[in-house]
Amino acid sequence: MTYDNGVNSQHVEGDGTSALDTSKYNPRKMTSDERTSVIKAGAQFTRKSDEPWLLISGRFDSGGEHSTEDYVKNSLYAAFGYPAERDPYLTINVVLDSPGGSLDSAYTTALYLSAYAGKIDLYVPDRAKSASTLLALAANTVYLSPFGQLGPLDTQIPDPRNPTVSVSALDCYQSVDYVRTFGAMTIQTVFNALLHETNRRLLAIDLLQKACSFAENAVSPMLSQVTALDFGGWGRSLRIGEHYGRKLLEARGVPPEEAEHIANTLVFKYTHHFFPIDLREATDIGLDNVEPMEKEVYDGTLEIVRLCNNKDFVGFISPEESDKEKRGSLARRNRDGLRSARDETFSDRYELSDRYEHAQAEVHVGEY
After folding, report:
1. Could you give the CA distance from residue 226 to residue 352 in angstroms, rounded to a whole number?
2. Which letter does DSSP use for residue 50 in this model?
3. What are the DSSP calls for 99-141, one per residue?
4. Which of 28, 197, 237, 306 is the most exposed, fewest CB within 10 Å of its CB?
């Protein structure tokens, strides 16, 4: 199961509930002209740099050959080949603009980048919310603009009351704590009220039993809506984001206790999923790799992001790596086309052979 972060609360993609038929029209897919504009702007922005620049724009999708991590893997392989070992002198600059998406995809993307680069510099002019915040935990340096935001890592799940929209698993998980607290407060309130009304003429143990019975009747309808499987699932889904965050921080050299504190804060300590984590907030929770972005860099990266028009783009924008990626993509398409032609040829041969055997069988049947 893929756990999802950053799903718009009004629309859950990919679960079959959307009114939009994405098989006919994908609003997140770029046109050829749009992609060309992004690459040109990227070449202009990176012209003074001799380091590779990768752009990741859009939602992190997981699973299959069209997943975000697969596109990242193909881009890296085309530019640098097979990563026999990490190059300690290679710095990969990543421009990131994402509302979030799959925790699995974002975590795997961070692993792929780390397999190649000795240093990862992340640039966030606008947003790296929810699951995409995992890349900020993996990066050596995060350049965050005054308008840039990271986000909490609490997992988003289908709302039990209305599966067509999403809700934070933390809301569901903490609702049980709320009911428990409500029950305890109810016992105390009712017990004190009974003491006052009876002028302490009855035994305290009898009053306590009445208070407990009243509280039980009050909370039972709420607790009856939650199964142990639900509660365990919510907790487990939240632990995935925490576990991924801690692993990435520790891989970057953050001490285990500090890594656990930061990851736990990102999952459990914020009031709601869309809480904006800016430069000051990121520093306050212990992220020591976040630095302010310069205006020139902000203007350049924001223009590239703007040209993406809220659509998906994964690929290099630095000319040298972009050219290698283009050649690799062309070779891949040619290889896939050749494989497809071979499959069709095999299918045709199989069909002809099947027809021949069928005809022979009919001959033999006629002979008998």
Report:
1. 59
2. -
3. --EEHHHHHHHHHHHHHHEEEEEEEESSEE-GGGHHHHHH-SE
4. 197
DSSP 8-state secondary structure symbol assigned to residue 132: G
How would DSSP label each residue in 295-342? HHHHHHHHHHHHHHTT--EEEE-SHHHHHHHHHHHHHHHHHHHHHHHH
| DSSP one-letter code for 113 | H
**In the chain, what are the domain boundaries?**
4-158+231-317
Q: What is the pTM of this model?
A: 0.72
Residue pLDDT, tens place only, 95-112: 999 999 999 999 999 999
| The residue count for the chain | 368
Q: Rounded to an integer, what distance in angstroms lies between the CA atom of residue 324 and that of residue 76?
A: 10
Q: Residue 285: CB partners within 8 Å, gap ≥ 6?
A: 262, 265, 266, 277
The lowest-confidence range among 123-137, 164-178, 310-324, 344-358 is: 344-358
Host H or E run for residue 89: strand 87-97
Contact 118, 27 (CB under 8 A): no
Q: Report the alpha-carbon distance of residue 231 to residue 198 in Å, rounded.
A: 40
Per-residue CA distances from 220 to 109, 118, 179, 212 (Å): 44, 55, 9, 12
**Cβ-contact 41, 310 below 8 angstroms:** no
Helix (H, G, I), strand (E, B) or coil at 57: strand
Provide the pLDDT confidence category of residue 171 given band limits of 50, 70 and 90: low
| The pairing of beta strand 313-316 with beta strand 53-57 | antiparallel
At residue 5, the 3 state secondary structure works out as: strand
Give the SS3 label for residue 290. strand
Angle at 38 between CA 144 and CA 329, to 5 degrees: 110
Burial class (CB in 10 A: 0-12, 13-18, 19+), 141: middle
Give the C-alpha separation, 243 to 241, whole Å. 5
Q: H or E stretch including 43?
A: helix 32-45
The dihedral through the CA atoms of 106, 107, 111, 117 has a sign that is positive
Q: Which residue has the higher pLDDT, 324 or 17?
A: 324
Report the alpha-carbon distance of residue 157 to residue 163 in Å, rounded. Answer: 8
Decide if pLDDT at 11 tops 60.
no
Rounded Cα gap, residues 270 and 133, in angstroms: 14
